[in-house]
């Protein structure tokens, strides 16, 4: 009778069901106090043995190695018009001259026009919405998930009907102590021509799922496009080593490399985001030592840790597992947010 009672209590506790046991199975009715205490202890030990240690919230290696399947889908003018209506088009005036073309053909207009933000729906065509439920190494409470930021880059006007393909990847993973920030990048192509329409980058906050890295060295990962050097050169550094394949080969590289100062900018931005709550005015000085070249399109992982008012950092290329940059950022003061993280044992 005692064993049956303990097992029943274990099952009820495990399933979080608050139903009283039948009177003839109740431990308080059939088992003396001392024996019941020992039985309850054995029950707790059994539960601990079965449940084992809690799983880590995030396994960075598993997350970053995940490959999303390509997803094909089609949409038409009905979808485009429904979206426009859903965000208020023609809501105040059903014949608004400036918005009627979003929901209706008129004056020889061959098709209705899609709002640029219609493209924000494309990532949700992936399995399970943004697809993060299927990512191995992510253990989080879905009720605490927040969609914190969203960036859309439009390469071609969004057609009112199309057959398209989504290509999705993990674009960022950051340990914020009490939370994990996950960046998902989805590029959408026209299925037949392969023409790129747009790119969505969703920033997801997984509250309660942080703390997966060494508390003194917050983890930050981000990947950047293969044309990053071409973008950076527009800021004034026109050295052909970063844009001309022939010049790069003469210099001993297989292809143009990223500007060292571009890598430095990424690293310092990661420090400001992680330690300064995004406030660049908290920085007094910075220092960086260039250790190795970076090819545009490679993944940069920046590790950081606080030493007094200095944030020491090291940036690695994930694909080659090599350090490419190291240095420090001297802060004017330690932001109050860092004191909060220390108080709660997050640093």
From TrEMBL:
Residues 24-58 are annotated as: Disordered. GO terms for cellular component: peroxisome. Pfam families: MaoC_dehydratas, MFE-2_hydrat-2_N. One of its GO terms (molecular function) is 17-beta-hydroxysteroid dehydrogenase (NAD+) activity. This is Uncharacterized protein. CDD domains: HDE_HSD (cd03448). The lineage of its organism: Eukaryota, Viridiplantae, Streptophyta, Embryophyta, Tracheophyta. PANTHER family: PEROXISOMAL MULTIFUNCTIONAL ENZYME TYPE 2, PEROXISOMAL MULTIFUNCTIONAL ENZYME TYPE 2-RELATED. It comes from Oryza meridionalis. Residues 73-208 form the Peroxisomal multifunctional enzyme type 2-like N-terminal domain. GO terms for biological process: fatty acid beta-oxidation. InterPro entries: HotDog_dom_sf, MaoC-like_dom, MFE-2_N. Residues 226-322 form the MaoC-like domain.
